[in-house]
């Protein structure tokens, strides 16, 4: 009997080595159905199992369209099951396409966030979120000189205190980013968001090579378990269709993961590395652009051009581009009331009307003068 058992135990000894050799190719990573979205989307009923959608999202047999190629759309799709895996890889097959040749927007976000199904100004979802946003930004809002082209993929980690600044394409809050042309292809386009041992790696497969190309990698990213996967998109004056064909969630089964037992459910999202902003070189704190709402009376701010030179030690400024040009279309979604009031108040002398304006501590008068 002993001799019969022995070969079997040998197999058990050898087996782990076979597996660990294979794990480089992720054969042990397995797709979790409850976090994945694959065709056919519908189960037995009219619901998509484990997923909910909001806004302009429509589901067809072959794709989930967050927005179509028309103005002022906003749609999202969210997984309803919180992710309890510590290490994962989310692979999204997507398609962004539209009739615009040079002008199109705005893009979409792949989320790993605490709050789900909450609409807002960050490509259709909540600002001041907790978690990770991987932003595929097709439209360059940034007025100043740019260091990169769009479409641009970047990542933002938020503990709920930061606002995504559309006007600067999130420059102040991004961890890292890369250019990636992913629009209007006939071939399939994919993105992988991999979170493994606190390292975030974003890769794309958009050149029809059936291989991942690294976009960026950032170490020291802390994300808790228990958040939700989602995707959301918006259009403004410019538009695109933003389609999701599939979401595949792989739980990574790591060898020698000594931290695997650690309870990660209570930690606050954080990143030890922020990319230095491309502008605002006089900003002492990269990635810390702070925004606040100030309430001013209209009397105090008229006529508008006098506001900036007024002798005051208050560290706010009025964003003139906001006053004289149309408010960026991104802000309109979910902010319709506010922008409407904004426009009205500009044209009236009624006293004590309240105007909401955005101020930025990070912007000194000098830098605003350069704009
Ligand atoms: C949240 O993030 C901001 C900006 O990165 C940081 O200043 C703040 O200390 C963080 N708060 C918590 C509770 O981690
Ligand atoms: Ca943008």
Automatic annotation (TrEMBL):
It comes from the Eukaryota. One of its GO terms (cellular component) is Golgi membrane. It is a single-pass type I membrane protein; Single-pass membrane protein. Residues 1-21 form the signal peptide. Residues 341-371 have a biased composition (Polar residues). The keyword RNA-binding does not apply. This is L-type lectin-like domain-containing protein. Keywords: Disulfide bond, Glycoprotein, Golgi apparatus, Lectin, Membrane, Metal-binding, Signal, Transmembrane, Transmembrane helix. InterPro entries: ConA-like_dom_sf (IPR013320), Intracellular_Lectin-GPT (IPR051136), Lectin_leg (IPR005052). Residues 322-371 are annotated as: Disordered. Residues 322-340 have a biased composition (Basic and acidic residues). One of its GO terms (biological process) is endoplasmic reticulum to Golgi vesicle-mediated transport. Residues 29-252 form the L-type lectin-like domain. One of its GO terms (molecular function) is D-mannose binding. It comes from Psylliodes chrysocephalus. Transmembrane segments: none annotated. It is found in: Endomembrane system; Golgi apparatus membrane.
């Amino acid at each position: 009997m002993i001799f019969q058992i022995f070969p079997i135990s040998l197999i058990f000894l050898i087996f782990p080595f076979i597996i660990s050799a294979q794990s480089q190719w992720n054969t042990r990573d397995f797709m979790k159905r409850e976090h994945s979205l694959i065709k056919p989307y519908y189960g037995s009923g009219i619901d998509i199992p484990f997923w909910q959608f909001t806004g302009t999202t429509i589901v067809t047999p072959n794709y989930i369209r967050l927005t179509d190629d028309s103005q002022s759309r906003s749609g999202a799709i969210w997984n309803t099951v919180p992710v309890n895996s510590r290490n994962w890889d989310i692979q999204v097959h997507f398609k962004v396409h539209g009739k615009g040749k040079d002008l199109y927007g705005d893009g979409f976000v792949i989320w790993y966030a605490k709050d789900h199904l909450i609409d807002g100004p960050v490509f259709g979802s909540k600002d001041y979120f907790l978690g990770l946003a991987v932003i595929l930004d097709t439209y360059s809002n940034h007025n100043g000189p740019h260091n990169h082209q769009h479409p641009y993929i970047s990542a933002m980690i938020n503990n709920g205190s930061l606002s995504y600044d559309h006007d600067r394409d999130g420059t102040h809050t991004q961890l890292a980013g890369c250019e990636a042309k992913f629009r209007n292809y006939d071939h399939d386009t994919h993105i992988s968001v991999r979170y493994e041992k606190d390292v975030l790696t974003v890769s794309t497969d958009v050149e029809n090579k059936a291989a991942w190309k690294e976009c960026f990698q950032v170490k020291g990213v802390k994300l808790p378990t228990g958040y939700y996967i989602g995707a959301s998109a918006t259009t403004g004056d410019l538009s695109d269709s933003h389609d999701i064909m599939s979401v595949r969630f792989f739980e990574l089964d790591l060898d020698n993961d000594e931290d695997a037992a650690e309870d990660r459910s209570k930690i606050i999202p954080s990143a030890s590395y922020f990319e230095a902003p491309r502008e605002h070189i006089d900003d002492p704190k990269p990635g810390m652009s702070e925004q606040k709402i100030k309430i001013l009376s209209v009397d105090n701010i008229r006529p508008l051009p006098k506001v900036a030179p007024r002798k005051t030690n208050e560290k706010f400024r009025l964003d003139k581009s906001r006053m004289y040009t149309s408010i960026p279309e991104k802000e309109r979604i979910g902010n319709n009331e506010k922008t409407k009031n904004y426009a009205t108040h500009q044209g009236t002398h009624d006293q004590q009307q309240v105007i909401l304006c955005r101020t930025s501590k990070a912007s000194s008068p000098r830098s605003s003068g350069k704009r």
